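=== How it folds ===
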Amino acid sequence: MSNDYLKRILTSKVYDVVTETPLELAPLASARLNNRILLKREDQLSVFSFKLRGAYNKMANMPAEELRRGVIAASAGNHAQGVAYSASRLGARAVIVMPVTTPQLKIDAVRNLGGEVVLVGDSFTDAYEHAVTLEQEEGLTFVHPFDDEDVIAGQGTIGMEILHQHPGPIDAVFVPIGGGGLIAGVAAYIKQLRPEIKIIGVQTEDSNAMERSVRAKRRVVLKEVGLFSDGTAVKEVGAKTFKLARKFVDDFVQVDTDAVCAAIKDVFQDTRSVLEPAGALAVAGAKKYIREHGCHGRTFVAITSGANMNFDRLRFVAERADVGLAREALFAVSLPEERGSFLRLCEALGERSVTEFNYRISDPHTAHVFVGLQIQSEAEITALEQNFIDQGFPTINLTDNEMAKSHLRYMVGGRSELAEHEELYRFVFPERPGALRRFLSCMHPAWNISLFQYRNYGGDYARTLVGIQVPPSDKKELKKFLNELGYPYWNETQNPAYRLFL
């Protein structure tokens, strides 16, 4: 099997439409991390993503009769553009089934390339199932985004380019993972020619199907996947890609949303290019790996896999990048509700820059202040927290508290004596017509919404915080409602940030 992939990669037809992408030094990131960081710039391809390689190689190897009937694909966006572009070059019809959560930028790009777009479901899996139905109904040929030999081989040409662009020592290549096509192809090539080079897969903490599958030695299906890195939001990896990953991938790194946002900023500072979240995954993974393993003076390659960024999402990226770069720390600080307390708190802050300072009187004895502070490194956070405590101010570190970062810092108001039996839940709503209406219509009519905070993050999904007044006798009914609703949710009723401020 392995030799077959080497032959497929070496004889791939991708160079009919692809020009070799640069392998560039990231000087600022390299200096900051004390290691040599090389970026494999797949974001510079004509469709701003590596996916063109696999899609074209698959279609260029199809029998002429199949190509004449047309092709169909299921994709969160980048594979869709690759298929649409390839179809236009080869003179074929292309039907693309995409999740409704796909950024509008990618939908418009596919249509501009001549693809026929069908929007179905919230994830790749939903789109895939509908595409299989259409494939049979219309006699089209399915072009899988990752679990296909020719697709894997097309992506594997990236590994081939890396080795001849940098014949010197490489300690590791970091590769983003969704369904696994990219890492399968890159690993199958590099590990057979340069086995000393580590292949390290990078996934978000909420879309880690490949790592969980490899650890379990079987393919694991995730119930939900995170939507921020939409290009890697896959519930189940491919059968073929899973086998190759088990054989060739050395290790995995999981990163959170803040780390991805920080990586987007890192690449922008070095290249003035804006990557999409999936495109920055490898850089985020390399940074975390270097930090955890104490690496110095080594050479690492990170594949920047795509730049199809929804412009509206940049607002969220900018807000969260400083936390991911360890440039901002968030705290809940309690102090006596008496004259002079705020002055003492300000004195405890010293000359440090304040990024946020929110307060509302809610208690005759104690004031709770939401404080954001500019920092230079993550190591300062614990020292700051201890300094507040030493000054007589009970403090909770909220830097890693998702509810505080996504909602609390944007809210005004405070506790309410009217909010009896309030239960607080955080949801991720698909950003589409009817999502909120469905939530409200499914809710028990006797329950009252006592708090509601909604914030859109770029057009494909929204984070929502909801307070619901539910009598204790209705707790089982509430659980049933939440499970049947089908939206990802978290119970935040015991969250200390909620207890202090809301």
Remarks:
- The first helix runs from residue 2 to 10.
- The two ends are 59 Å apart (CA to CA).
- The CA atoms of residues 40 and 243 lie 25 Å apart.
